[in-house]
Amino acid sequence: MLALGVAMCGALGLGAGSSPIQAQPAPAADSFPQEQVRRGRQLAALGDCAGCHTPSGGSAFAGGVAVRTPFGEIYSTNITPEPQTGIGEWPLDAFRRALRQGISRDGHRLYPAFPYDHFTHLTDDDIAALYAFLMTRDPVQAIAPQNRLMFPLGFRPLIGIWDALYLKEGPKPPASNAPSPR
Fold it and tell me: What global pTM score does this model have?
């Protein structure tokens, strides 16, 4: 059965993630306009980023929070600008790809417990603001525990099937106040 799923993913081009995006040093925290950082703080609050990425009694945005699903546990990752264990080496393009396509900087698919199927609808400006906010947080070295999912759901290429079914990538067009045609 697993072999059939892998073959289907390969045939549909769904299994693999993407090419890695080259690591880059984090931008200096003072390189971001304060208004952009404030907007990012608002978006992080609206998206409840801290709720999923801040462990009880732990460092803000350091990850390691268990997301319990019927299929097992998925642990949130470190989204501080720490270079080895966080997103400190992620350029904006890698961050945008994670939010829009559910693909990490190194090219692996992210589990949809991270709601990229919703974050994909952010505008480019909102994604840049959220990035600015996160890149101005204190870097924290923290490694999340290994995910514990039932077989074969720990096999990340299978996420391509979920993405094909449910991911509608890209920002939504602005709402129009024009009356609808009849």
Answer: 0.82
